[in-house]
Write a structure and sequence with these properties.
Layout (H helix, E strand, L loop, with lengths): L1 E6 L11 E6 H14 L3 H31 L6 H9 L14
Antiparallel strand pairs: 1-2
Length: 101
C-alpha cells in the first residue's frame, strides 16, 4: 500500500514549495529510519535524494547528447579497431589506442 507524505518546507535564502509525494509503505519506512538515524528531517532526506537523482540524470542526458553529437559529426572509432586494441592488452604486441576516424 502506498503512503502519502506531505513535506512542508521553508527557507530563508530561497523560495520553497510544499510537495505531496505518494510512495510505497516500505520506502516511507526506510525514509523514517534514515531521518531518525541521521537526525535530519524527512524533508531534508527527500530533498537530498531528489538533488542526487537530478544531478545523475542530467549527467546521463548530457553524455547521451555528447555521444549523438559525436555520431553526427563523424567522431567515431570502428568497433573492430577497438576489439583489436583490447585483445592486444597484456600481450607482447600491445597496440596503441585507436583514434577517431
Amino acid at each position: 500500500m502506498e503512503k502519502c507524505i506531505t513535506m512542508h518546507t521553508r527557507g530563508e535564502l530561497m523560495g520553497t514549495m510544499t510537495l505531496s509525494v505518494r510512495m510505497p509503505e516500505d520506502l516511507a519506512q526506510q525514509l523514517n529510519r534514515l531521518a531518525e538515524a541521521s537526525q535530519r528531517s524527512k524533508s531534508f532526506c527527500i530533498v537530498e535524494a531528489v538533488k542526487a537523482y537530478l544531478e545523475r540524470e542530467a549527467w546521463q542526458l548530457q553524455a547521451i547528447e555528447t555521444g549523438l553529437d559525436d555520431l553526427e559529426n563523424g567522431r567515431l572509432i570502428d568497433h573492430d579497431a577497438v576489439k583489436t586494441w583490447v585483445d592486444s592488452w597484456d600481450t607482447q604486441n600491445e597496440s596503441g589506442k585507436p583514434e577517431c576516424g
